[in-house]
Backbone:
């Protein structure tokens, strides 16, 4: 049996951050993970360049049953704190839109930094190690793995959610929570593409690869202005991934296909200036031509000179394109989702230390708990913040 002060289940963003912080405080720390490599989710994120934080990260960018829960951790370890860390290691990175930061070269550079921090802090990281059982005794926790048995005073569950099962995602974190009588909220795939009903798939067959700037709104009134992308399975792109966290089965989403225009005014102006031109050719200057052709085929867009439209025609076309409604069939699920919505109920945890209120020495951090960030580096920032806060407490 190996005795250690802290055992961390999961060598991902939150687990490695926590490990380094605890190690620097003089604690003996062991991290166990089933994977062949550490931080596999970091490696594939952001197209292999890891969108590792967002400069504008604030509590408003997170979904949680208790919206105040994230405030403490985010205020104590900000995006700038993590930027300072990677700057010390000389990471080359660049800014994209909306405050997103990406590695210039490869996400591996970021994983190397986390592993270096763990090495400097004296942390042991044991890969290809499956956790078989966890029990509690008067001195702490006994964790039996496929390799060894560990005894620890503090047990940190940083096992992630159910997303991307090919990378080894399992429900072990939720099982440990339930074993120790913590409430686990329903989990759903989030930041995930939509699939469409068969009739809509047939309508949009041939549009795969088309992308356009939109403003998308869910039934609860949440909106995002970003691109949507037609795929052979349905709809994807940043706007779709964002809204998927707010969408529930059976609901529709409303998409403003021309958020930067007042189409009614534009159509009226075209009538006076370019009256002989066809409606479809003029609209093809604002929208992808293939998409316009689909709407012509369906009779939404009239195949006639624009001067022949009356006020009612203009109002109807404007309303349709500014508030295009579509009801997804579902999502692509955990296979392609970036995060898991739901998880360990934050009411069960201290927002300052992430320790269970019911079980002394048991901590939950990162994606396994009911905190889900928007697309754009927010989820990693919560992993860094929760890992840091927990690492100061274990």
Residues:
């Amino acid at each position: 049996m190996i005795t250690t002060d802290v055992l961390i289940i999961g060598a991902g963003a939150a687990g490695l951050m926590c490990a380094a912080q605890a190690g620097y405080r003089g604690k003996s720390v062991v991290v166990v993970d089933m994977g062949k490599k550490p931080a596999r989710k970091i490696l594939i994120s952001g197209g292999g360049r890891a969108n590792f934080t967002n400069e504008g990260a604030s509590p408003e960018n997170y979904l949680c049953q208790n919206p105040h829960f994230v405030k403490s951790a985010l205020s104590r370890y900000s995006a700038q704190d993590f930027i300072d860390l990677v700057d010390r290691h000389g990471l080359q990175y660049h800014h994209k839109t909306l405050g997103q930061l990406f590695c210039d070269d490869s996400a591996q550079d970021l994983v190397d930094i986390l592993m270096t921090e763990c090495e400097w802090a004296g942390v042991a990281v044991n890969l290809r190690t499956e956790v078989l059982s966890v029990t509690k005794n008067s001195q702490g926790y006994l964790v039996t793995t496929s390799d060894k048995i560990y005894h620890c005073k503090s047990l940190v569950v940083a096992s992630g959610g159910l997303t991307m099962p090919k990378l080894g995602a399992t429900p072990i974190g939720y099982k440990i929570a339930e074993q120790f009588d913590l409430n686990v909220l329903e989990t759903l795939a989030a930041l995930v593409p939509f699939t469409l009903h068969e009739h809509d798939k047939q309508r949009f067959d041939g549009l795969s690869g088309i992308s356009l700037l939109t403003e998308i709104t869910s039934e609860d009134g949440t909106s995002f202005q970003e691109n949507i992308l037609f795929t052979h399975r349905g709809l994807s792109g940043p706007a779709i991934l964002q809204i998927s966290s707010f969408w529930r089965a059976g609901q529709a989403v409303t998409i403003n296909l021309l958020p930067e225009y007042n189409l009614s005014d534009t159509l009226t102006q075209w009538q006076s200036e370019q009256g002989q031109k066809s409606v479809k050719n003029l609209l093809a200057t604002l929208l992808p031509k293939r998409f316009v052709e689909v709407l012509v085929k369906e009779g939404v867009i009239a195949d006639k000179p624009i001067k022949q439209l009356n006020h009612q025609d203009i109002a109807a076309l404007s309303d349709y394109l500014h508030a295009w409604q579509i009801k997804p069939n579902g999502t692509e699920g955990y296979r392609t989702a970036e995060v898991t919505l739901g998880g360990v109920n934050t009411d069960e945890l201290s927002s300052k230390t992430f320790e269970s209120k019911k079980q002394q020495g048991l901590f939950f951090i990162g994606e396994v708990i009911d905190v889900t960030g928007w697309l754009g580096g927010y989820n990693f920032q919560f992993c860094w913040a929760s890992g840091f806060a927990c690492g100061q407490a274990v």
Observations:
- The CA atoms of residues 194 and 353 lie 36 Å apart.
